[in-house]
Specification:
- It contains twelve helices and nine strands.
- The chain is α+β, with helices and mostly antiparallel strands.
- It has two domains: 108 residues; 231 residues, BirA Bifunctional Protein, domain 2 (2-Layer Sandwich), CATH 3.30.930.
- The strands form two sheets. A seven-stranded mixed beta sheet has the order 1-4-5-9-8-7-6, with helices on both faces.
- α1 packs antiparallel against α2, α2 packs antiparallel against α3 and α2 runs parallel beside α5.
- The longest helix is centred in the N-terminal third of the chain and has 41 residues.
- It is elongated.
- The structure holds adenosine-5'-[phenylalaninyl-phosphate].
Length: 367
């Protein structure tokens, strides 16, 4: 029922003093007038403040009650409260209606047809690192590996402890990163995906996961502070170094579409034993030495090794029954070798004309 009718009725039957009751109907009418002119939630808010606010018209009436006698106070107070309830209800109804209207208008004005070809704009393209990740995932999927993911903000447990880094182990020094006040950190490696994967899956396990990692680094042609890795793990009965080397060779020959010269050097990572660093003969300089390979002719692409028994245990897997290998590869460096990019910083400076050079064939692919 519209409020003005409501208040016509009340005032006819009210035994209140004329000077108080006389005030109610005009307020109700003024409210109706203001409400009918509010076509936006901001205007409605102003109406709400004017009538129901701390310094609003209803509050002023309530303050006036103190001058009335006990019986009058009860009667007039009841009338004011009923008016207040009616106004509150009408404001709520109007608010629901206006919010819905505004949402509809916003949707109508921001609607875009994503199936239309870009008009007057160039199509976007996939970043070289995205292309490398997609190709790696294809290669590993074809070998029966699952594709997993993990969070960028990790706990100490997943980034270090479960990976067999003791709290004060010197190997942590090479993994300096940003820490949050709650003790979380930006992951320094994709290896936490190993632990998260083992927690979810039962052997036999074949899994890979790609993503960003973050470290405090001195930047140069092959070092960034935010870079990318792919992590991989295979666990089953009887897995040995031969399986590791074969899988790495298949991955690299598929990636580069040719045989690539590789060498393994002993490498220390707390979560593998034995551990290795795998290097490839630099494809940018043909092994002669350049900035990208620090004049060595070889580029360190990945760390790998046989999963440490403590890590298997952390993942809930019995190391007396199962063994496995794991690897973690820098995919920025892989992209540099794959696309002949001589400085890692080109990959991160947001130059669109640079990015487009690598992506023409697959720019319309949808994944
Ligand atoms: C690790 O991060 C280990 N988690 C890898 C691993 C996984 C070992 C599983 C054993 C088993 P490392 O710090 O060496 O290891 O980094 C791995 C690769 O990331 C390097 O070989 C390199 O290709 C790349 N990388 C490392 N630091 C940088 C950097 N600052 N900028 C660009 N790429 C980097």
């Amino acid at each position: 029922m519209p409020l003005s009718e409501n208040w016509t009725y009340k005032s006819h039957h009210s035994p209140y003093k004329p000077n108080m009751t006389d005030k109610l109907a005009p307020i109700a009418a003024a409210f109706q007038e203001a409400l009918s002119q509010a076509t936006h939630t901001k205007e409605l808010e102003a109406v709400k403040v004017r009538f129901l606010g701390k310094k609003g018209e209803i509050q002023a009436l309530l303050v006036g009650l103190k001058d009335l006698s006990g019986e009058e106070k009860a009667q007039v107070g009841k009338g004011i409260n009923e008016l207040k309830q009616s106004l509150t209800q009408e404001i709520a109804n109007a608010e629901a209606r206006l919010v819905a209207q505004e949402e509809q208008a916003a949707l109508a004005s921001s609607w875009i047809d994503v199936t239309l070809n870009p008009q007057g704009q160039e199509a976007g393209s996939l970043h070289p690192i995205t292309l490398v990740h997609q190709r790696l995932e294809e290669i590993f999927e074809a070998m029966g590996f699952l594709i997993l993911d993990g969070p960028h903000v990790e706990t100490d447990y997943y980034n270090f402890e479960a990976l067999n880094f003791d709290p004060h182990h010197p190997a942590r020094d090479m993994h300096d990163t940003f820490f949050t006040q709650g003790g979380r950190l930006l992951r320094t490696q994709t290896s936490p995906i190993q632990i998260r994967g083992m927690e979810r899956l039962k052997p036999p396990i074949r899994m890979v996961g790609t993503g960003k990692v973050f470290r405090c680094e001195r930047l140069d042609a092959s070092h960034e502070a935010c870079f990318h890795q792919i992590e991989g793990m295979m666990i089953d009965k009887g897995i040995n170094v031969g399986h590791l080397i074969h899988t790495m060779k298949v991955m690299l020959s598929e990636m580069f579409e040719k045989e690539v010269e590789v060498r393994l050097r002993p490498g220390y990572f707390p979560f593998v034993e034995p551990g290795y660093e795998l290097e490839i003969a630099c494809l940018l300089c043909g092994g002669k030495g350049c900035a990208a390979c620090k004049k060595l002719g070889w580029v360190e692409l990945l760390g790998c090794g046989m999963v440490h028994p403590n890590v298997l245990k952390a993942g809930g897997i019995d190391p007396t029954v199962y063994s496995g290998f794991a690897f973690g590869m820098g995919t920025d460096r892989l992209a540099m070798q794959r696309y002949q990019i001589n400085d890692i910083r080109h990959l991160h400076n947001g130059d669109l004309s640079f990015n487009r050079r690598f992506s023409t064939a697959s720019q319309y692919q949808v994944y």
